[in-house]
Amino acid sequence: MVDWSSVETVFLDMDGTLLDLHFDNHFWLEHLPRRYAEQFDLHQQQAKDTLIPMIMAERGSLNWYCTDYWSEKLSVDITGLKAEVGDRIGYRPHVTDFLEALKAAGLRSVIVTNCHPDPLALKLERTGLDRYVDSIVSSHDLGKPKEDPLFWQDLKSVTPYTAPSTLMVDDSFPVLESARTAGIGQCLAILAPDSRQPARERHPEIPSIHHFNEVLPALRQRQPLPSNR
After folding, report:
1. DSSP per residue, 22-49
2. In degrees, to the nearest 5, what angle opens at C-alpha 223 toward C-alphas 218 and 229?
3. 187: which of 47, 123, 193, 212 is 20 to 30 A away, CA to CA?
4. Is residue 228 included in any domain, yes or no?
5. What order of strands is seen across the sheet that includes strand 186-190?
6. What mean pLDDT, rounded, does the chain reach?
7. How far apart are CA 136 and CA 113, in angstroms?
8. pLDDT average, residue stretch 160-176
9. In sequence order, what are the beta bridge partners of 112?
């Protein structure tokens, strides 16, 4: 699955990789349409018919992930509405064990997320996820999403890394394909990002797992890197 002996840095997606994607899917597909319908006096299905095509049209762009963009475009407080269902924010299985194992192996762990800083702050407040990793980078700080192969070059300006010795873990096939194009040494796909949805089909070329317990034994057998790395 992963050649841990050649890894120095692990880039980790957040939503759907470390955190259960159920929160985000529930928000965009259920909670937002319901609250939008209430605000603009629509039936909920009318709200869905209005919102979903609008949202899907931005898929893969930075706007797709941008709280400020959707707050302004829809005339609603996206961050406030997300906080209303913040109790649904939670870890995926075996995540904290995996993050602790990365640290024990002496590997550098960096969350590299398309999440906007506002919902990112909410998720960190709810989970304490930032305690388990070395740093966090939001693509909004770089002005382009992870789907853009140029993102990975710009990422070096805020968190230097050596591409061949880096592992990227993500639930998005387009992001992983982008990382591979940019020379990231190894990629690993998450097939079960949403606990309430069936697992997806495997990618034909990118190794994949359902949960981190599948790679934990090999990771725990890895010898720690020298402290002067």
Report:
1. HHHHHIIIIIHHHHHHHHHT--HHHHHH
2. 125
3. 123
4. no
5. 135-138, 108-113, 9-12, 166-170, 186-190, 208-209
6. 94
7. 8
8. 97
9. 137
Count of other CB atoms within 10 angstroms of residue 127: 18
Q: Which residue is associated with the tokens 């470390």?
A: 18
How many domains does the chain fold into? 2
Going by C-alpha positions, the residue among 203, 3, 10 that lies closest to residue 112 is 10
Arithmetic mean of pLDDT, 149-174 = 96
pLDDT single digits (tens) 98-154: 999 999 999 999 999 999 999 999 999 999 999 999 999 999 999 999 999 999 999
On whether both 15 and 117 belong to a single domain, the answer is yes
Task: Express each pLDDT in 46-93 by its tens digit.
Answer: 999 999 999 999 988 888 889 999 999 999 999 999 999 999 999 999
- Strands 208-209, 108-113: pairing is unpaired
Decide which of 87, 103, 124 is a domain's last residue: 87
Q: Which residues contact 46 (CB under 8 A, 6 or more apart)?
A: 37
61/111 same-domain check: no
Under DSSP, the state recorded for 12 is E
DSSP 160: -
pTM of the model: 0.93
